[in-house]
Amino acid sequence: MDSGPYFTTSSGLIDSIDKKLLIVLRDGRKLIGTLRSFDQFANLVLQDTIERIYVGNCYGDIPRGIFLIRGENVVLLGEVDEMKEERIGLRQLPVEDILIAQREEIELKQKLEKVRSKALHERGFCIDNSANDLY
């Protein structure tokens, strides 16, 4: 086991400069871009950024250019292995098609959630977390 220094602060990002990264944000968006800069708050500057939308075994890329990400919005950050990325077997769709598929997927999830909530309500559970995230 390597006993080298491990950094849990933003200084741990120094090895990721000029590398292609995948970043998952708090709102669920997935961004892929080249890390150009960061600061002590882990705010990130990405170059040649794309927003990737996954639906089933398909994906679509929306070009976003230079992107500034506030550090508190980052959930996950990792280097993209381009060799593995090609072997995954996902099918790329045009942006318009993936946005339609994403909208359909969201509508289906909302319908299923309504059915689930109704069934729970009929069984005596009070489920109303649509307005807030309090339990």
Rg measurement, Å: 19 Å
Largest sheet: 6 strands, mixed
Top CATH class of one domain:
Mainly Beta
Helix content: 25-40%
Share in β-strands: 25-35%
CATH architecture verdict of one domain: Roll
What fold name goes in the CATH topology slot of one domain? SH3 type barrels
What is the typical, i.e. mean, pLDDT?
86
Q: Shape from CA axes? A: globular
Number of strands: 6
End-to-end Cα distance, whole Å, is 42 Å
H/E element order: EEEEEHEH
Report the uncertain regions. none
Q: Which strands sit side by side, in order, in the main sheet?
A: 5-1-2-3-4-6
How many alpha or pi helices? 2
SSE-based structural type? alpha+beta
3D architecture notes:
The chain has a six-stranded mixed beta sheet with strand order 5-1-2-3-4-6. A hairpin with a 2-residue loop joins strand 3 and strand 4 (58-69). The chain contains two helices and six strands; from the N terminus they run βββββαβα. The protein has helices at residues 82-87, 95-122, and strands at 20-25, 30-38, 44-55, 58-69, 74-79, 91-92. The mean pLDDT is 86. With 135 residues, it is α+β, with helices and mostly antiparallel strands. Keywords: Cytoplasm, mRNA processing, mRNA splicing, Phosphoprotein, Ribonucleoprotein, RNA-binding. Pfam families: LSM. One of its GO terms (molecular function) is chromatin binding. Its main location: cytoplasm.
